[in-house]
Design a protein that fits this description.
The chain is mainly α. 62% of the residues lie in helices and 2% in strands. The chain has helices spanning 11-26, 54-76, 78-94, 106-119, 122-133, 137-145, 154-170, 174-184, 190-197, 201-219; strands at 222-223, 228-229. A two-stranded antiparallel sheet has the order 1-2. Helix 9 packs across helix 10 (201-219). The longest helix is centred in the N-terminal third of the chain and has 23 residues, at 54-76.
């Protein structure tokens, strides 16, 4: 996989990326990508020391590569995510001496780099969302007609709900979507989002509030904690 040749860290880091990528890909199924909340995010909240030495960066890579890759893949698709994740960690490796634990967690620093990389591919992300929003027009009606709890299979529910969420995300502006997805898909707190994007905490809160209001206007009864529709909205 040529993408990982740009990662200028220790050879073992590149090998780890090769071994883990297939398993990561298997956990990202298209309609489900809009509904899943990554349960592996919580591990990175602890305070982290500086990562000046290559060995320190290797530890950081092993802990954070998989969730960062999934975050990127959910936004721009798996094929493009391979190159962008490699670019993000190559950038992080080159800038590892600049990481300051007093200014934010390591995970927020890495997600900030990843978000900056994804920002350069806004058009691809927008096209993917608009395409996904059109994938299952029949599912839109079915989602409102079939009781949520009575769906025969989780994937049927996901397939019917994903176009609604994709369409709503496509309608957000860049700043709103970025903050919302860092919160919902990367599980960053307001403080971590502010550190990741280099903005004030109040700005992060206001952008997230506006993004939620915009999604609620499109989606109605949407549970932002569970990142899915409330059952009462499907009864």
């Amino acid at each position: 996989m040529a993408a990982y040749r740009v990662l200028s860290g220790p050879r073992s880091i590149i090998s780890a990326a090769w071994r883990g990528l297939a398993a990561i890909r298997e956990r990202i199924w298209l309609p489900r990508q809009y509904l899943d909340v990554d349960e592996e995010q919580a591990a990175g909240r602890q305070a982290t020391a500086a990562i000046v030495a290559p060995a320190d960066f290797e530890d950081a890579f092993r802990e954070h590569f998989a969730p960062v890759y999934r975050f990127i893949a959910r936004r721009v698709g798996a094929a493009l995510a391979e190159d962008l994740a490699a670019e993000a960690f190559a950038t992080a490796y080159r800038r590892r001496a600049s990481y300051d634990p007093s200014r934010g967690s390591l995970r927020s620093w890495l997600y900030g780099i990843a978000a900056n990389v994804v920002r350069g591919h806004w058009r691809e992300e927008q096209q993917l969302l608009e395409l996904d929003a059109r994938l299952s027009p029949d599912g839109l009606a079915a989602a409102g007609a079939v009781p949520f709890a009575d769906a025969a299979e989780e994937r049927v529910v996901a397939a019917s709900l994903a176009p609604r969420i994709a369409g709503a995300l496509a309608a957000l502006n860049r700043d709103q979507r970025e903050v919302l997805l860092l919160h919902a898909w990367a599980d960053l707190s307001h403080e971590e989002i502010a550190a990741a994007l280099g903005i004030a905490q109040g700005t992060a809160r206001s952008r997230l509030s506006r993004a939620r209001a915009a999604l609620r206007a499109h989606l109605g009864e949407f549970d932002f904690d569970l990142w899915t529709f409330k059952e009462t909205g499907h009864a």
